[in-house]
Write a structure and sequence with these properties.
about 270 residues, alpha/beta, 5-stranded parallel β-sheet, 5-stranded mixed β-sheet, transferase, EC 2.1.1.107, uroporphyrinogen-III C-methyltransferase, 4pyrrol_Mease
Length: about 270
């Protein structure tokens, strides 16, 4: 039985009429923050994204209402202004509103857009950071985002703009030259174009790439490939979103640092 909260921790009060914008982490329920767990136990309504799994939603208090507001590429999805305005409406109804997002709400999660709408309508809110998939998901794949002997910079990028196309405001040459490691969210649809842009900008065609699907979950899968082969390998393996793409020599550390794979081998001994 899950207690309502650890008695020794002074949690903030979740007041009626407030919206809490919270990150649920990359998938594994154990990666929730305590503040996010506290919010789940006290919210009147949870407006949640497609990447928030049932195990996390199952932590909500009895009687809490769940409203799905997930976006999936290429599929009918709620429009962002409608989601933002729904948060305003629920708060004005005097409810404790938890806006629960996969990863971190301010890392390619449109949390900033929703927060600005709340500010516009004078709705009080709190932000609860979450572990973003570009860090936590790669750690579960045995890939460190930074390593002293490999890189001193990392760039997080989105693979498509608000229009659904490859972002046209990115200086591909600057990123290719300036960041030894590049982590791409939502990049599978345009992976061939993105990989081509980086190769044209000077990245080695044989540079190591990993694609991580269902990061931190029991069905996590990691495909190791190269920049020039990654799009073909994704297609050949039938890989579908959600997925992370990481480009850089940190991928080469995975054979030594794949701790989940090591546990599986020990369990099979």
């Amino acid at each position: 039985m899950i207690p309502s909260s650890p008695p020794s921790l002074p949690f903030p009060e979740f007041e009626p009429g407030w919206v809490w914008l919270a990150g649920a982490g990359p998938g594994d329920p154990g990666l929730l923050t305590l503040h996010a767990w506290h919010a789940l136990r006290h919210a009147d309504v949870i407006v949640y994204d497609a990447l928030v799994g049932p195990d996390i939603l199952g932590m909500a208090r009895e009687g809490c209402r769940l409203e799905f507001a997930g976006k999936r590429g290429g599929k009918p999805s709620p429009k962002q202004p409608d989601i933002s305005n729904r948060l305003v409406q629920l708060a004005r109804d005097g409810l404790r509103v938890l806006r629960l997002k996969g990863g971190d709400p301010f890392v390619f999660g449109r949390g900033g857009e929703e927060a600005l709408t709340l500010v516009e309508h004078h709705i009080p809110f709190r932000v609860i950071p979450g572990i973003t998939a570009g860090i936590g998901g790669l750690a579960y794949a045995g890939i460190p985002v930074t390593h002293r002997d490999t890189n001193h910079a990392v760039t997080f990028m989105t693979g498509h703009s608000a229009s659904g196309l490859v972002p046209d405001t990115i200086d591909w040459a600057a990123v290719a030259r300036g960041s030894q490691v590049i982590v791409l969210y939502m990049a599978l649809k345009h992976l061939r174009t993105i990989a081509g842009n980086f190769i044209s900008a000077g990245r080695p065609a044989d540079q190591a790439v990993a694609i991580v699907t269902n990061a931190t979950l029991p069905n996590q899968h990691v495909l190791e490939t190269t920049l020039e082969r990654c799009a073909d390998d994704v297609a050949a393996n039938g890989i579908e979103p959600p997925a992370l793409v990481v480009v850089g020599d940190v991928v080469l550390l995975r054979p030594a640092l794949d701790w989940i794979g090591a546990m599986s081998h020990r369990a099979g001994d």
